[in-house]
Amino acid sequence: MRYLSTRGHPDRRRFCEILLEGLAPDGGLYLPERYPQVDAATLAKWRGLPYADLVFEVLSLYIDDIPPADLKAICAKTYTAEVFGTPEIVPLRELEDGVYLEALSNGPTLAFKDMAMQLLGNLFEYELARRGEELNILGATSGDTGSAAEYAMRGKKGVRVFMTSPDGRMSPFQQAQMFSLQDANIHNIAIAGVFDDCQDIVKAVSNDLNFKRKYRIGTVNSINWARLLAQVVYYFAGYFQATADNEKQVSFAVPSGNFGNVCAGHVARSMGLPIRTLVVATNENDVLDEFFRTGVYRVRSAADTHETSSPSMDISKASNFERFVFDLVGRDAAKARGLFEGELGRNGRFDLSADPAFAQASERFGFASSRSTHADRLATIRDTDKRFATLIDTHTADGLKAAREHLAPGIPMIVLETALPIKFAETIVEALGHEPERPARFEGIEALPKRVVKLPAEAEAVKAYIAQHCD
Ligand SMILES: *Cc1c(COP(=O)(O)O)cnc(C)c1O
Fold it and tell me: Is the dihedral of CA 32, 37, 42, 48 positive or negative?
């Protein structure tokens, strides 16, 4: 299997070459040259496999530069009941007739990003050891990504994490999750500023190519292909749990921000998994809903990006969206480049409404979308608690609302549960008048000693800190 860039760069790379990289050299995103097809016999063979074995089967179709025995060991070590809470790893439960919740958030940080990040941590450690290299991961977070990255990389050989976050602006729980880590290779950096300042610093440091090379700076952002690939697997696992045979179709509703999660669904569907509809659920930051309704993709300004009660979906643009659009326009790299580099670069938007390709988004690729508001979230959380005695988080609430708007008779609808309610306790209290239950391992976490340094919102200060902590 070789990987190409959505913007047409002539190079073809192998999995381990793109594993530690972000964008392709031409600014595009990496995709496999083709999607391996999974036939009925394969689905029959996969149904009933333990999760880690299923991961190995799916990954083996995309990775041919790690010996199978090594890859199998990495999968087995990553997806354990100890780390993910249950032997099923992603257990499915029926909420109401034909509507299911697939639990993706029982990993170490209680959000679905663990599903991919835990694998990434083990792949990084493996590949860095093989090359005899080290990597310093620099990131910016306002919550889920940073903690998932830190819990995945803690104690890993050859990897250090430098995670910037806006000082005082994360929820106390999320802060405690990150800052209580005492591992020597994890560095929390609280920046005197907002999230955008953190992102600007990461960009500035990464753009200093000498510094980047000297200190081997890397990232773990959501455009990483290995992360996306890890997420493909739970679409298969959800499908097998919701159906009794491989003839049946199912649909998925996916709380979406950077389009990584639902793009993994698109990949699973493109491989032949019988998915009818992929429902993209957005909050008030409805960049994606607008596209699927109108064909117009319009990046929002910072002023036009809302702070909502499903904050992990608060995006101004969707960084993985280019992958889907590349497929949508028939894998025409020149066209994708024209849209993302040309039109988006010039006008901050592109318009496919008059392009025959746009109709394919729903007709051929099965996409649908919805938008939710804060009031919708409160209502969905209350209703789910009352009627089903089930507490869901704000992002999952956006997914559930979207799911109900796209139900089809006889087609199971699987809502991906992307976080546990404890992570967004404030809104749960607003909806229900009481705090959500907290898993025992997080009792009293806010009182633990914190490991964090405070730095001004200056790239130079962060560079100096990294340089000091790199030997
Ligand atoms: C990251 C995140 C999302 C959005 O996922 P994307 O892959 O960026 O679309 C949704 N919900 C939660 C809880 C998240 O952490």
Answer: positive
